[in-house]
Each structure stands twice: as structure tokens, then as C-alpha cells.
Amino acid sequence: MRMLKYVIKRILLMIMTFFIITTICFVLIKLLPLPAVKEMGRDVNLILARREAMGYNKPILVQYYLFWKNVILHGDFGLGEQIYSGQEVSTIILQKLPYTVMVNLYSILLSVPLGILFGIYAALKKNKWQDHFISTAVMFFISVPSFVYAFIVQYLLCFKTGWFSLTVASKEATPFVSWAMFKSMFPAVLSMGFGTIAGLTRFTRAELSEVLTSEYLLLARTKGLTKRQAVIRHALRNAMVPILPMILGEFISIMSGSLIIEKIFSIPGVGALFLNSVVLRDYNFYLALAMFYTLISLVGTIVVDLSYGFIDPRIKMGER
Questions:
Q1: HEC string of the chain?
Q2: What distance in Å separates the CA atoms of residue 74 and residue 134, rounded to the nearest whole number?
Q3: pLDDT tens string 138-171
Q4: Which of 11, 121, 194, 219 has the most CB atoms in a 10 Å sphere around its CB?
Q5: What is the number of alpha carbons within 13 Å of residue 31 lying toward its C-beta?
Q6: Are 303 and 248 in contact (CB under 8 A)?
């Protein structure tokens, strides 16, 4: 019962937070001036008529009411004005979403095993040269932004060696789930993976190092278990309790990690679309994608919190 109350409380807080963030995004984007019609290079009367139909000339509170009315009752986020002019926002997002899902999913599937393995190896070689080398590399890769790796990867793997293309293959020319598509995405996947590998390595090393020096593990060794048996049966199992929710959080939030990377590698996903909507001040695309990314982050936070109670029964969510 307490767990159920805790879950309901967290969901209600999530809805309230989502509403507040959406409201802030709506007000801030509406405070920006609309791009001048003459700058858009299209039929002036058509653009003005569309803005009138979207309620752009009404007070901001009326616009806010109409926005939620259309979203809740009709699932309508409006039409694009600057980007994909005249086309449904939701339709364009659904067309581009698979690219974002695939590049982030490939990155997670590459990063998680490598990060855990490096972390385990560093913990087992604690205070030796292998541990110092991995720890130094981790600090370096965590400190450097992912877009810096993107430029390095582009220069070395795409320009100098020519092993990979500079941009992702189009879905029309290449089967979406294929080796050719994965190969074209690999530079972007690698650029995104460096930071995740480094973070997971550091976290795994810290947790496993603490478990390896605990008293119950020393007791297990005195009872006759070999170091290998003690590590596999006891140390890894207990160290994975805080690590698994972190991995789960990475999978839940796979959509939110490729905004700049998609732009650099010309990936036609929602990340690049979101950046373009901000730069070009396309209200409807910006609001829809801001809501999308906010919802993913909030849901990921709740799932990670609740997973602690399922992974380790000793943790009782909602208890005092």
C-alpha cells in the first residue's frame, strides 16, 4: 500500500512538473518576435492567414488555452511554419523519430558492456598502473564534450582514412535496419559513446571497489572461497544494485543524448529538428519537441527511482 501511494505521489508530481516546464517553454517562446513575413520568401497572405488560424494574434492566455485544447482533445500540435511549412508537426516527428532511436540505441548497446567491463577491470587492479591508466582516461573523456569527439572522429575515420561516410545514409537508399545503415551511423554512435563509457566505468569502479573492501567479503574469503568465487558470487551481485538503475536510466533516456551529434553528422532525427526549431523560431515544432524531451526525462527519473525497490528488496520506497 505504501509503495502504491509512493508511485501515485511520484506520478502526480511528474504531471505537475511537466505542466510547469511546458508552461515556461510556451511563455518564453511566445515572447520572442515572429519572423518577419518578408524574410520567409513565401506568399504573404497565406502566411498571415495561417498565423491568424493558429491564434498568433490573440492574447497569450488565449493562445495557451487553445494550445492545450488542441493537444488534449485532438492530439494536434499544429502545423509547421518555418520548418516543413504547412505539414503536421506530429507527422514529421514520427517520421524522424526512428533515426534518433536507432543512433541512441546503438550507442547504449556499445557503451554499457564496455563501461562495465572497464570498471570491473579497474576495480580488480586497484592502485596498479592499469587502474591509474583507466582512471586518467576516464577523467579525460568525461571532461571533453561529445561534439569535440564528433569532429575528431569525422577527421580521422571519415576524412583521413575514408572508412566511413561523413553523413548517415538515407532511409530511401539503404534499408533502415541493415549493416550499411549501422556503418553509416557508426561515427555518430562512437562519438556519443565515449562519455557514457567513461561515466559508467567510473561508477562501476567506485561501487565495486567499495564492495571488495567490505567486511562480509573478507569473511567469505576466510571461509574458503577463492577470490574469483567471492567476486562473482558476492561482490558483483551487490555492486550491481546501484549500477543497474543507472543503466536502466540510460535506456529510458536514449532519445535525449544526440541533439548536437545529429546536427554534426546530418542525421535526419528529432534532435536536429529541435535545434532548427529553436534557431528558426518555429513555435509548434519547438513546443512539441520540448514536451517530448521533458516527458522522457521525467519518466526516466521515476523508473530509475522505482527500480531500486525491485532490484534490492531491502530498499522500501515510501518508507520513513
A1: CHHHHHHHHHHHHHHHHHHHHHHHHHHHHHHCCCCCHHHCCCCHHHHHHHHHHCCCCCCHHHHHHHHHHHHHHHCCCCEECCCCECCEHHHHHHHHHHHHHHHHHHHHHHHHHHHHHHHHHHHHCCCCHHHHHHHHHHHHHHHCCHHHHHHHHHHHHHHHCCCCCCCCCCCCCCCCCCHHHHHHHHHHHHHHHHHHHHHHHHHHHHHHHHHHCCHHHHHHHHCCCCHHHHHHHHHHHHHHHHHHHHHHHHHHCHHHHCHHHHHHCCCCCHHHHHHHHHHHCCHHHHHHHHHHHHHHHHHHHHHHHHHHHHHCCCCCCCCC
A2: 53
A3: 888 888 887 888 888 888 888 888 888 877 777 6
A4: 194
A5: 6
A6: yes
Mean of per-residue pLDDT scores for the chain:
79
Rounded to the nearest 10°, the torsion over CA 134, 136, 138, 142 is: -170
Q: What residues contact 75, with CB distance under 8 A and at least 6 apart?
A: 90
Phi-psi region at 318: left, alpha or beta (left = phi > 0; alpha = psi -120 to 50): left
pLDDT in tens, 39-86: 555 556 666 777 777 777 788 888 888 888 888 888 888 877 778 777
Report how far apart, in Å, the C-alpha atoms of 268 and of each of 50, 89, 253, 265, 306 are: 26, 15, 19, 9, 34
Grid cell for residue 125: 587492479
Sign of the CA dihedral with 148 first, then 150, 151, and 153 last: positive
